[in-house]
Amino acid sequence: MERRAYPPGQHGPAQSRRKKQSDYALQLREKQKVKRIYGLHEKQFRNLFKRAASIPGITGDNLIVALESRLDNIVFRFGFTSSRNQARQLVRHRHVEVNGRIVDVPSFRVSPGDEIAIKGRSKDLLPVEASLEARTRPTLLEWLALDEKARVGRMVRQPARSDIPLAVQEQLIVELYSK
């Protein structure tokens, strides 16, 4: 099989001579990447950005911290599920408790000190057990604490941008929305 340095098709070689992407294209691609990673729609993302912009501090860092503080993301980070979509479904189906109360809103904002647990009868769900046993689950971050046996986790502190392993240039998103 022969590998060529350009995409297939009639216009393949011509695409390799195409101009570099515009600033807008780079900013839009970065925003779309973050939206897809966290599974958000445009309106949800825009509202989250507005809230992050109103908080004092660096807007890009505030945005990433707000995304990481969502309940569905925390459930995923604990390793209770193998994907954020699965975590979202687990929350929507009322299998997750925050501080002893059932929460079925994936966008619920988790605060430092909050205890997130899988509901009593739901602890033995097959997806939860499978993802906790899986070798591919994400490593637990230092701002989270987890008791695997009891299926209980706690957000120890508010994460800083440096604590979040996300290969994103959030400044491009800020520039996009500031137009």
List its salient traits.
single chain; about 180 residues; alpha+beta; five-stranded antiparallel sheet
Structure, described:
The relative contact order is 0.16. A 5-stranded antiparallel beta sheet has the order 2-1-3-5-4, covered by helices on one side. Helix content is 43%, strand content 9%. Helix 3 (42-54) crosses helix 4 (59-68) and helix 4 crosses helix 8 (170-177). It contains 8 helices and 5 strands, in the order ααααααβββαββα. By secondary structure, the chain is an alpha+beta fold. The chain is globular, with a radius of gyration of 19 Å.
Show unreliable segments.
none
Helix and strand sequence: HHHHHHEEEHEEH
How confident is the prediction overall: mean pLDDT? 89
Computed CA radius of gyration, to the nearest angstrom? 19 Å
Q: Helical content, roughly?
A: 40-55%
Count the E strands. 5
Structural class: alpha+beta
**Proportion of residues in β-strands:** 5-15%
Spatial order of strands in the largest sheet: 2-1-3-5-4
Largest sheet: 5 strands, antiparallel
Number of helices: 8
Overall form? globular
Measure the end-to-end span: 47 Å
